Amino acid sequence: TKTEAIASAAVAPDLPAFDYSPPTYMGPTAEEILEKRKEYLSPSLFHLYKNPVNIVEGKRQYLFDDKGRRYVDAFGGIATVCCGHCHPDVVEAIVNQTKRLQHSTVLYLNNAIADFAEALASKLPANLKVVFFTNSGTEANELAIMIARLYTGCHDIISIRNAYHGNAAGTMGATAQSIWKFNVVQSGVHHALNPDPYRGVFGSDGEMYARDVQEIINFGTSGNVAAFLSEAIQGVGGIIELAPGYLPAVYSSIKKAGGLCIADEVQSGFARTGSHFWGFETHGVVPDIVTMAKGIGNGIPLGAVVTTPEIAEVLTRRSYFNTFGGNPVCTAAGLAVLKVIEKEKLQENASVVGSYLKDRLTGLKDKYELIGDVRGRGLMLGVELVTDRELKTPAKAETLHVMDQMKEFGVLVGKGGYYGNVFRITPPLCFSKEDADFLVDAMDLSLSRL
Ligand code: PLP
């Protein structure tokens, strides 16, 4: 069987057919690079290099290490590589633009920037059409928070516990997972109960969690707020789908309190949920500001804030610019990404392959008591491991072990959630059913070996 083939494969398991082998790698070894990493790069997250993999190439949904070994990339550079690694159309757009003009500035006109802004606006509800480019999701959320404060004249921001919004002062304040928080001044930020259907106090009752937001407005603010900021599906937080009914009720409370609703689409945007292009659409709400990054450039540093002309007006009160934000090479990549998503029907693929994968993972849940929950939408899926289904005791060590074992079998998944016991599956949107089968077989075998 395929599972046996995976188990017996010492170096190259029986991966789905893919006609490519990388040229022989002649560079330094993983150990040599690790030494440099240790000496010259930030010590943060160094513990991740327990069994270091030296990735030297990427093609579509596959990564290759220095020994020419292929991995199914089911993490997608943290939900970033949406069209697949080194997609030829994206590469071509980058190369062509690089040859023509690598950098301009906001002082001059350039069509690569304007064309992409127009294309991006066409993917959003009609009035959301003014785009500010940034270099990252953090910058996009910082700017969105600033715009909301300027527009409303209020300071209070409400975000959700277990959220991740970035790592600068304002966004780290809005982030609500202790592992990602340093000693930031969290002025004016309130964290609402997490509407988490699996672990949350009110289960799947979205309206009950929404009452908590209303109470924060009533008792924790002057009655007015600047903004409510949330992901549609929490990514770093462990693929948490907000309880149904939550966002519509919260948006209504926030609007009544004079605030703006900010949708953080850094992970859930760009067709990842399969059913919709944007995550907020899955909740039937329309935000006032949308922030995005990751998938927007297929891995090229790019982010954006999109809002209405009326709200955008606040930035004319002072001079606002960002040296690299909207660099023409990045926006050329962004335009190519939008075209590839459409041309290759990647949203439809995320929907079809995502449901197939979710069904197969749910099948594994019936087989292993250790799997407490399988959730998510499209190609943004989570599998939570618990040692006791009743108590939902996080199976942290087992999660690490299975993840390492899957890596041995040639499958890369991410890990997250407050307890670090959730597999995050966010592959490139060109992921196939064969890749999904391979992933599930590798997970099955890894679980069976615990
Ligand atoms: N918002 C969400 C939902 C994210 O997942 C992330 C990063 O993981 C960010 C914002 C921050 O983006 P960046 O790492 O590009 O600054």
UniProtKB/TrEMBL annotation:
Its EC number is 2.6.1.44. GO terms for molecular function: alanine-glyoxylate transaminase activity; pyridoxal phosphate binding. Its cofactor is pyridoxal 5'-phosphate. The keyword Membrane does not apply. It catalyses: glyoxylate + L-alanine = glycine + pyruvate. One of its GO terms (biological process) is photorespiration. InterPro entries: Aminotrans_3 (IPR005814), Aminotrans_3_PPA_site (IPR049704), PyrdxlP-dep_Trfase (IPR015424), PyrdxlP-dep_Trfase_major (IPR015421), PyrdxlP-dep_Trfase_small (IPR015422). This is alanine--glyoxylate transaminase. It comes from Lupinus angustifolius (Narrow-leaved blue lupine).
